[in-house]
Every structure is written in C-alpha cells, then in structure tokens.
Design a protein that fits this description.
Elements lengths: L6 H9 L8 E4 L5 H6 L4 E4 L4 H6 L3
Parallel strand pairs: 1-2
Length: 59
C-alpha cells in the first residue's frame, strides 16, 4: 500500500528534480498557501476558481 501524500510533499519531491515544472495549487482554504510559495508555486487559487484567475496563470 502506498502512503498518502499531500500536494505540498509531492511538490517538494518534484522540486528535488528541478524548478522547471510549474505548480499551481487550488484549495478551498488558505491553510497551505505559505507552504505552497515555499516550494515556489506559480499560484495558489481559492475554490471556486474563477476562469479569469486560472487564465492569468496559464501559458
């Protein structure tokens, strides 16, 4: 059985391999926002996500 993993710990693993992957979090709370920016997330969007906000962070 695989251990449960949250988005922050997954992003930390991704960052060990480099910074080229863009990470944008979506959440219903601000609880992990500081952690998200600690791993250099491109954005932290609160649900419900507005299309215009998502578009600002897309390529």
């Amino acid at each position: 059985m695989m251990p449960k993993r949250d988005g922050i710990s997954l992003a930390r693993e991704i960052r060990k391999k480099g910074d080229e992957t863009m990470v944008i979090y979506t959440s219903s709370t601000t609880e992990y926002a500081m952690d998200a920016f600690g791993i250099h997330a491109l954005g932290y969007l609160l649900k419900p996500v507005e299309y215009t906000e998502l578009k600002k962070h897309s390529i």
